[in-house]
């Protein structure tokens, strides 16, 4: 059963004329980890907002087609109910801190307070969520005293504590330094391994290659290609359309043109695949 | 670096343990009584026998007196001087300052209003020092203050220092483009737009993202909100509040009756 | 224009020492990447080059100017600094006016400003957006406007602070082209970056900082091969460098062409 089901979705922001999403149809099954890649402006963020319900309920504009998540349909639902099923995190960790709370613990509990969770339940839920994301030692710190990577993990924890069915992540590591990136990917991986349904927008293709079940390539508002990471990320179609691909892939492709990579062998995405391929 | 914009001093004291609304009403009562009371020396007495003991009760005497020197005394002093010079009351001229007359009556008037202002500022300072802002807002929200209102106040307190940092970065960026921030005033006046523009536009982008982030955590949900921390409200608090309201009413009656 | 940094030490007003005695010389026309973990002092160092920060001890010389003796607005004649977040500098009605801001401040004539703006917009592929309001552009193009604003100042030295953060592959390539063109003009280009692949492919010299000191300083091919030392400042070697090492190649690889050439041997 598809947890997320978009059928023929076309969306235009208010005051603009050209649709940012054109006739998008995609599904995500429960427990799947789907990565979305594409150049800036392809509509990736808009797609994230659509799955999370902010399109159209927050941004208004024109939406045609159907958006179904966890059994609810977008046109028959409102944002308050939708956010209980879909968690959303994005690039800038600073903007995801509410500013209403003085400690990390309270910040995480903010969503529980807003949705009327009984007080007795709050503490254990927050503690469990913090254990899962490994930020237990930050509980009494001010969110504003943390590093970017720590802030982003607090943002993720604040979403996870609400026990969404789907996690939508819009380039969560784009503004992180290498350490922050590692920390955030660590959390995402843990969530995925625990069975969370994840939709992740990312540029860092090597990581996607190792952990995503499926990759959807978005280009100018349309789905260009979708399939297994090994197929999509090595496809010539991506290279021709300005997608960022791993240097292992582009080097393997060029090597193949020069006869240094076996034609029968699939192009490499990760370091190990590249090593194996070039050793021959 | 977390910069504290609130005055809150973390300590355990009788004042700290009072319910925030009680403290809020205490402060309002002190101010109202000092302004409304018909008896001349009310404000002075409140300052000596009310404010000062309260800051010992709240265990914030050191911080309070530091604040008094920095803020309360200069403010009250300024008012005293201004009112002495410019308040056109009285006949008994004590001395002349340039073309202004300082009379006995204007001195008395100034002394009272300066002390009233001192009482007002002191009372609020005490409130802020013994009440954590989120505790105050949480309690008021529970009693019916719109959540958005409380959010705007609290988030402003925290985000303002961050915006200061942002403003500094903008200044640095524009200086690096040759913007002159060190010479004549006229030149600097013209350089406001390159400094304010990015701050405003950049903030608009951030505000939208933050709105989405808190929306994603149910901020505008119509659910009855619960709170993580319990803000206790004892029977002493309740009695205290009614007592204070009664005092204010009595003072009002006295004022009307005696005038 | 030569940059000379001698025994530079810097401590914040809070007492924290950010730079612990850095000495560097950068000759005119070099391309230098500064790498290292957050807190190592990269931004602090680079802010000394245009006077935003003043040394606690030691000195920084830009050509014949000691930075302690010239205001930031004056040093802007010699050092252009592209900040990381374009939204922290864009304020004008349209791109043309925005890009003209810098050269105008530097006192160029109307004609000169026009020519400089035209060249800068051409270099950043913005020639057809002169009349557009910067905030009507996507973040990708706002970044290019910010870069154009500094290029138009025509400074002999240009500094980029994390230019590739949040950018997609297409824009990173665009930025790489800008850097190439600046180098071709003989300008000194200095960048702070976390993107070690971008660093390897565009910068001939790499300086790795750790805890306010220089850890490594030399040709990219030398520095990027020292994986264990780089790891102490949380820098991973570029993808192709790692590939080359795993395959047992002798030389340190910094780009695709080198790799394929080495493979053929």
Tell me what you see in this structure.
The complex is a heterotrimer of chains A (280), B (259) and C (265). Chain A has 280 residues and is an alpha/beta fold. Chain A has 2 domains: 244 residues, Rossmann fold; 35 residues, no CATH class. Helices cover 39% and strands 22% of the residues of chain A. Chain A has 12 helices and 10 strands. The relative contact order of chain A is 0.15. Chain B has a two-stranded antiparallel sheet. In chain B, helix 2 runs antiparallel to helix 5. Chain B folds into 2 domains: 145 residues, no CATH class; 71 residues. The mean pLDDT of chain B is 86. Chain C is an alpha/beta fold and 265 residues long. Chain C has a domain of 158 residues: Rossmann fold. The termini of chain C are far apart.
The CATH homologous superfamily of the largest domain in chain A is called P-loop containing nucleotide triphosphate hydrolases
Total number of beta strands of chain A: 10
Helix-strand makeup class of chain A: alpha/beta
Query: How many distinct beta strands of chain C?
Result: 10
Specify the helix fraction band of chain A. 25-40%
Largest sheet of chain C: 6 strands, mixed
Average pLDDT, all residues of chain A = 93
Under CATH, the topology of the largest domain in chain A can be stated as: Rossmann fold
CATH architectural category of the largest domain in chain A: 3-Layer(aba) Sandwich
Largest sheet of chain A: 6 strands, mixed
Give me the CATH fold name of the domain at 3-78 and 155-236 in chain C. Rossmann fold
- The count of helical stretches of chain C stands at 11
Task: Identify low-pLDDT runs of chain C.
Answer: none
């Amino acid at each position: 059963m598809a947890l997320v089901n978009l059928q023929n979705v076309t969306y235009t922001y208010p005051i603009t004329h050209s649709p940012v999403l054109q006739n998008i149809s995609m599904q995500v099954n429960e427990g799947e980890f789907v990565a979305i890649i594409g150049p800036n402006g392809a509509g990736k963020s808009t797609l994230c907002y659509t799955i999370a319900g902010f399109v159209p309920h927050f941004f208004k504009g024109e939406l045609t087609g159907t958006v179904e998540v966890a059994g609810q349909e977008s046109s028959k639902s409102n944002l308050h109910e939708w956010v209980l099923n879909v968690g959303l995190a994005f690039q800038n960790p600073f903007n995801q801190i509410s500013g209403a709370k003085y400690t990390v613990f309270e910040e995480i509990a903010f969503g529980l307070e807003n949705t009327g969770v009984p007080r007795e339940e709050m503490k254990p839920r927050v503690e469990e969520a913090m254990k899962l994301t490994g930020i237990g030692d930050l509980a009494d710190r001010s969110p504003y005293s943390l590093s970017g990577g720590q802030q982003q993990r607090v943002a993720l924890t604040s979403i996870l504590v609400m026990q969404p069915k789907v996690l939508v992540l819009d380039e969560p590591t784009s503004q992180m330094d290498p350490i922050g990136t590692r920390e955030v990917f660590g959390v995402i991986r843990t969530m995925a391994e625990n069975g969370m349904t994840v939709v992740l927008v990312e540029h860092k293709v090597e990581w996607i290659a190792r952990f995503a079940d499926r990759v959807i390539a978005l280009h100018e508002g349309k789905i260009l290609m979708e399939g297994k990471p090994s197929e999509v990320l090595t496809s010539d179609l991506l290279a021709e359309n300005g997608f960022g691909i791993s240097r292992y892939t582009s080097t393997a492709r060029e090597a193949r043109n020069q006869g240094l990579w076996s034609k029968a062998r699939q192009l490499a995405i990760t370091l190990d695949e590249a090593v194996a391929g070039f050793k021959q | 670096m977390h910069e504290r914009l609130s005055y809150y001093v973390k300590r355990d004291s009788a004042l700290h343990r009072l319910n925030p609304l009680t403290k809020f009403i205490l402060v309002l009562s002190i101010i109202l009584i000092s302004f409304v009371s018909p008896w001349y020396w009310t404000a002075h007495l409140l300052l000596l026998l009310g404010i000062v003991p309260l800051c010992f009760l709240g265990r914030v005497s050191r911080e309070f007196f530091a604040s008094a020197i920095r803020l309360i005394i200069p403010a009250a002093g300024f008012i005293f001087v201004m009112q002495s010079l410019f308040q056109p009351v009285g006949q008994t001229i004590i001395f002349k300052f340039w073309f202004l007359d300082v009379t006995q009556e204007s001195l008395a008037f100034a002394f009272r209003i300066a002390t009233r202002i001192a009482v007002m500022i002191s009372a609020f300072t005490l409130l802020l020092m013994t009440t954590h802002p989120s505790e105050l807002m949480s309690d008021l929200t529970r009693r019916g203050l719109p959540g958005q209102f409380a959010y705007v106040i609290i988030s402003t307190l925290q985000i303002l220092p961050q915006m200061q940092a942002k403003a500094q970065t903008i200044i640095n960026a524009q200086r690096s483009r040759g913007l002159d921030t060190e010479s004549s005033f006229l030149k600097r006046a013209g350089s406001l737009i390159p400094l304010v523009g990015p701050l405003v536009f950049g903030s608009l982008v951030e505000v939208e993202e933050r709105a989405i982030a808190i929306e994603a955590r149910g901020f505008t949900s119509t659910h009855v909100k619960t709170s993580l921390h319990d803000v206790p409200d004892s029977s002493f608090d309740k009695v205290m509040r009614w007592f204070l309201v009664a005092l204010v009413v009595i003072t009002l009656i006295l004022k009307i009756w005696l005038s | 224009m030569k940059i000379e940094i001698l025994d530079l030490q810097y401590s914040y007003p809070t007492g924290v020492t950010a730079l612990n005695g850095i000495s560097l010389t950068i000759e005119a026309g070099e391309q230098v990447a500064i790498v290292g973990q957050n807190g190592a002092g990269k931004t602090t160092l680079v802010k000394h080059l245009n006077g935003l920060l003043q040394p606690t001890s030691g000195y920084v010389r830009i050509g014949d100017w000691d930075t302690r003796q010239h205001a930031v607005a004056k040093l802007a004649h010699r050092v252009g600094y592209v900040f990381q977040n374009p939204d922290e500098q864009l304020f004008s009605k349209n791109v043309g006016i925005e890009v003209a801001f810098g050269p105008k401040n530097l006192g160029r004539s109307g004609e000169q400003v026009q020519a400089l703006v035209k060249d800068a917009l051409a270099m950043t592929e913005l020639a057809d957006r002169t009349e557009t309001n910067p905030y009507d552009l996507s973040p990708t193009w706002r970044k290019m406007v910010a870069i154009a604003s500094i290029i138009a100042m025509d400074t002999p030295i240009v500094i980029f602070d994390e230019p590739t953060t949040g950018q997609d592959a297409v824009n990173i390539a665009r930025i790489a082209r800008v850097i190439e063109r600046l180098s071709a003009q003989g300008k000194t280009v200095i960048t702070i970056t976390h993107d070690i692949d971008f660093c390897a492919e565009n910068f001939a010299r790499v300086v790795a900082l750790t805890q306010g000191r220089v850890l490594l300083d030399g040709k990219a091919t030398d520095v990027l091969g020292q994986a264990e030392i780089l790891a102490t400042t949380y820098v991973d070697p570029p993808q192709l460098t790692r590939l080359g090492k795993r395959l047992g190649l002798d030389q340190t690889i910094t780009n695709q062409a080198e790799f394929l050439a080495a493979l053929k041997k």
